[in-house]
């Protein structure tokens, strides 16, 4: 398998797992919700989904990414937005309460890093997720993918929303 790299604060890091590509079927995965219950990606079958991937909600760019998608979610009919990080569910819960995050699912991949590996976002050296976006249509086909080349940079919010709107 080809080694894929991005940078974090200018330093190269290796991404583990299979790169998600447009046109492929989106794989099912499990996350842990803030109340420690299981979130299964198949729960949102039949909806358009935007998976917003962040290293940690405790950093400025990740915070803004999560807040931005939470605000945009109310304008998108029949679109589910899922923010995934490796933060513990307790930290996610505290963050969401403090920032009024209530329009999106915020869940953790901390247990098995299943999402990170299945979608190729797990950073080997740091065991954090790289930043990015995956848009999945109603039929579980990946329609847009962004792996941010420098993890401290923002995703292209407008492009992700534009791609999701094409599917509505």
UniProtKB/TrEMBL annotation:
Domain called Thioredoxin: residue spans: 20-166
UniProt keyword Hydrolase present: no
Keywords noted in UniProt: Antioxidant, Disulfide bond, Oxidoreductase, Peroxidase, Redox-active center
Keyword Disulfide bond: yes
GO MF annotation terms: thioredoxin peroxidase activity
PANTHER family: THIOL PEROXIDASE (PTHR43110:SF1)
NCBIfam families: PRK00522.1
Name of this chain's protein: Redoxin
Lineage, broadest ranks: Bacteria, Bacillati, Bacillota, Clostridia, Peptostreptococcales
């Amino acid at each position: 398998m080809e080694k894929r790299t991005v940078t974090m604060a200018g330093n190269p890091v290796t991404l583990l797992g299979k790169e998600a590509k447009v046109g492929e079927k989106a794989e099912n995965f499990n996350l842990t919700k803030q109340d420690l219950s299981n979130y299964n990606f198949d729960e949102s079958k039949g909806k358009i989904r935007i998976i917003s991937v962040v290293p940690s909600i405790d950093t400025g760019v990740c915070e803004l990414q999560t807040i931005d998608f939470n605000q945009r979610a109310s304008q998108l009919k029949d679109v589910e937005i899922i923010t995934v990080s490796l933060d513990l569910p307790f930290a996610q819960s505290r963050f969401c309460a403090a920032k009024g995050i209530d329009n999106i699912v915020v869940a953790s991949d901390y247990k098995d890093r299943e999402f990170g590996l299945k979608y190729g976002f797990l950073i080997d050296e740091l065991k954090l997720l790289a930043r990015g976006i995956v848009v999945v249509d109603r039929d579980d086909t990946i329609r847009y993918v962004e792996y941010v080349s420098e993890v401290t940079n923002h995703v292209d919010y407008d492009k992700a929303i534009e791609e999701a709107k094409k599917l509505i």
